[in-house]
Write a structure and sequence with these properties.
The chain has 183 residues and is mostly helical. The protein is built from 8 helices and no strands. Helix 2 runs parallel beside helix 4.
Length: 183
Amino acid sequence: LYHYVRNKDELITLMTDEVMGEVLVPDDKLSEDWRTALRQIAIRSRAAFAAHRWIFDRFGDGRPGPNGMRHFEQSLQAVAGLDLDRQLVFELIGQVDDYVFGYSLREIQEREEHERGGFPPDVVNFFQRELDTGRYPLVSRYLGEDALAGAEEIIELLNRADRFERGLDRLLDGIEANLPPRS
């Protein structure tokens, strides 16, 4: 292996850049509408991160590759027509990235929790004891009196297939509502 790469860091950089290649929207498919383009990028990003859970252990290593740069260029291209100043451009792209990263991380954590067999009995028992104290009326109201059943229902709701895109659309709605008026 080290005949082809110098060291482990280079190998990981290449692997990470390969995943970033999956994030890229084909050039002829990237919409000219900023919302649609950011939506396309976000959906592809989530899919790539879900397929390569290990990627989150490597982000932040400070070694971008060509596909990472192309992703950044594509993100800038998506919002270029909005004629925003530099700060707003980076803020907008960052907000969408933050949503995608946060959602993807949570999704990975929940999948790993499910693979481990769900909530450990001591966690369920703790939660139930706390609910039984009456100190958490809103938690009880939304979960019900059975901590395990309530938690499982919440997990089911959080794992609905359409939740990512609904949340993304809400985020984009908020961004659009707060864009400066066009001159």
